[in-house]
Amino acid sequence: MTADGQGAERTARPRRADARRNQRTLLDAAAAVFVRSGVDAPVRDIAAEAGVGTGTVYRHFPTRADLVVAVYRHQIEACAEAGPALLESCPTPYEALGRWVDLFADFLVTKHGLAAVLNSDDPGFQALHASFLDRLAPVCGRLLAAAEEAGEIGPGLEAYTLMRGVGNLCVGAESDDRYDARRMVRLLVAGLRQPR
Amino acid sequence: MTADGQGAERTARPRRADARRNQRTLLDAAAAVFVRSGVDAPVRDIAAEAGVGTGTVYRHFPTRADLVVAVYRHQIEACAEAGPALLESCPTPYEALGRWVDLFADFLVTKHGLAAVLNSDDPGFQALHASFLDRLAPVCGRLLAAAEEAGEIGPGLEAYTLMRGVGNLCVGAESDDRYDARRMVRLLVAGLRQPR
DNA sequence: TTGCAAAGCGGAACGTTGTTCCGTATGTTT
DNA sequence: AAACATACGGAACAACGTTCCGCTTTGCAA
Questions:
Q1: A143-173: pLDDT as tens digits
Q2: Domain with residues B17-61, CATH architecture
Q3: How close, in Å, is residue B79 to chain A by CA atoms?
Q4: DSSP annotation string for B53-121
Q5: Which segments carry the region annotation Disordered (chains A, B) (predicted)?
Q6: pLDDT, tens digit, for every residue of A32-55?
Q7: Which of A110, A174, B79, B189 is most exposed by smallest CB count within 10 Å?
Q8: How close B122 comes to chain A (CA, Å)?
Q9: Is 1.10.357.10 the CATH classification of the domain at B68-192?
């Protein structure tokens, strides 16, 4: 395995109190900077905002991607939990799928540049890539399977592919008002429907 | 206008013979390096391949994006000319649109990282962005309008939006074999169809 | 309370990018 | 052939992610 303990103790609480404090500070600072300057903001900016050195950032988050994952962890979780809930509350699986995809797209679109970095093939973002997709793909997969069983959509579409597609459609959405990412996502989902 | 003579004399022939020779060499070198290392290849690599200094690259192509545009100019042109042709040869405008989109997607997918750079919001790539879309959007627009008039698709979709959507779907297509960009593009086009 | 290893910190330093600058070389023109 | 504009090379700059290491702080043990 190339990933050493990646999923195991990514946000293990540091032993010392000051370190724990810094980790919190860093997360808050990163969240603030991400909102202000986008997810691509320089690590130095985040360190400055938190009032620490760059080394400290890297002590807590081995790579920029880990920081991004940590900041958005809660929202990823919320998105994951929304899947089963929608499946129950919606009249048809296809509608649940559609709503869930909207949720996912909204999440990506509102974070400047998140989608771009999610779909980047830069090896440095593998962790991010994995964390997002590993958590959400099964959720999406269940929605997909349900809709498929109900005969509402065609067979054989991988959750991974759909999520990457949606993620891609959201790239650059908020920095270009001539491009309507949500509309494209709706179109994609519409294309899913298979009258059989 | 912020763009000074961008469309006017982008590839104006240099006065001196060695300069003209170098421009050719550079285009060839860039094409080779793009194939080998993708469109994101460092300018230094291209300069090295061509056997010139980096300054020379920038003398001929003010920015990396201009070089990319120059290299793919022919294919953009071909894609642009295919539009009207398809409109004539296809039984229905919608089918012409679908085929044209496939063409466009194929073009993007086969060039490593082209799509990513096309849809980047990095200001440095405005030139590229503009050259691609300014040339192709009218073509796409005509196909869209024809399909719309024929009642095959819903109204009010901008060519720009569709092209960015397709471009986005193609990001990272060739560096991730679990992701099937062409399939997503097909889905998007399918979603376009409006039974009305 | 005091001492002392371990844990953590800051920011200089490194490697890689795109891009600019300028002294030098080379066509072109008269 | 001399003079001049044009073009060249590559060093130099700025911005980035990341690493490294000497110093500081902390928490535990005596």
A1: 999 999 999 999 999 999 999 999 999 988 8
A2: Orthogonal Bundle (1.10)
A3: 22
A4: -HHHHHHHSSSHHHHHHHHHHHHHHHHHHHHHHHHHHSSSHHHHHHHHHHHHHHHHHHSTTHHHHHS--
A5: 1-21
A6: 999 999 999 999 999 999 999 999
A7: A110
A8: 10
A9: yes
Query: Of A163-167, B12-16, B167-171, where does mean pLDDT reach its minimum?
Result: B12-16
For residue A193, the cross-strand partners are: A153
Q: What is the pLDDT of residue B2?
A: 33
Which bases of chain D are contacted by protein, using any atom under 7 A from a CB? 6-12, 15-21, 25-27
- Residue B162: name the closest of B176, B179, B180, B145 by CA: B145
- What's the CA A5/C1' D24 distance, rounded, in angstroms? 29
Please give the CATH topology (third level) of the domain spanning A65-192. Tetracycline Repressor; domain 2 (1.10.357)
Nucleotides of C under 7 A from a protein CB: 7-13, 16-22, 26-28
Q: Say whether A193 sits in a helix, a strand or coil.
A: strand
State how far residue B193 is from chain A, nearest Cα, in angstroms: 8
Mutation target for B interface from A125, A187, A194: give the one with most B CBs within 10 A: A187
Task: State how far the Cα of A148 lies from the Cα of A157, in Å rounded to an integer.
Answer: 9
- Paired with B96 in beta bridges are none
pLDDT digits (tens, 9 = 90+) for B43-94: 999 999 999 999 999 999 998 888 999 999 999 999 999 999 999 999 999 9
Q: For residue B56, give the nucleotide whose C1' atom is nearest its CA.
A: D8
Compute φ and ψ for B90, nearest 5 degrees: -90, 145
